[in-house]
Amino acid sequence: MTRSSKVDVVGVGLNATDTLIPVAHYPARGSKVEFRSAKVLPGGQVATAMIACQQWGLRTRYIGKVGDDSAAELHRTEFARLGVEAHLFTAPGCPSQQAFILVDDAGERTVLWKRDDRLTLRVEELQQDWIVNARALHIDGHDTAAAAAAAGWAQAAGIPVIADVDDLYSGIETLLKSVDYLITSRDIPGRLMEEPDLKKSLPALQKRFASRLTAATLGEEGVLAWDGTQFHYATAFRVQTVDTTGAGDIFHAGFIYGVLQGWPLQRQLDFACAAAALNCTAVGARGGIQAAQIGYCQLKYIQRTRTIDTDGSSEHFQISS
Question: Is the confidence at residue 218, as pLDDT, over 60?
Answer without folding.
Answer: yes
